[in-house]
Amino acid sequence: KKLKSLDYPHYFKNQSKDKLPADGEEIYAYNTNLFQSVNPFWVIALTPLVIAFFSFLNRRGKEPSTPTKIAFGLLISALSCFVMVGAVYASNNGLEKSSAWWFISSYAVITIGELFLSPMGLSLVSKLSPPRLTSLMMGGWFLATSIGNKLSGVLSSLWDGYDDKANFFYVNALLLGAAALLMFAMLKWLNQIFEEYK
Known about the structure:
By secondary structure, the protein is mainly alpha-helical. It contains 6 helices and no strands.
């Protein structure tokens, strides 16, 4: 079934008439697919900085253990949700458009959390797994990641149920914060195991 439009293109349909471009006005449109490259960009840009930060701490004998890095990664990821809370308030609870910089900034914060968490998790699994079970345990790590991706999709499906969109991000922050607190509570035990078997 074809949808024909005889006036403005569809990406102007959500604009009020007083904000529509004048005839002949030059328009700059960005494909939303470009946002798929935001996270890879931050990974490439921030990895050297995170490595340099840990090297700086290591030279002073203050580098945190791998489990501690993972706990801080969860905490930093929780902070990224508050950037999006700012976007909600800047857009009048989604009634107006907000700057793409909110999204880009949120990804910058969560990517730092990812760099604290993901490589460290792989390192933890490879160091602590019994040699005969390393491949199986690594698969378990990626299985846990896939389950997390599925659950994040389930969580995102609840978006329309929130009248105050900021609450959606507060729930995300609460879940990540709870995971971080659980990790911090287990740090002493995890660090002992890590020191014993690394």
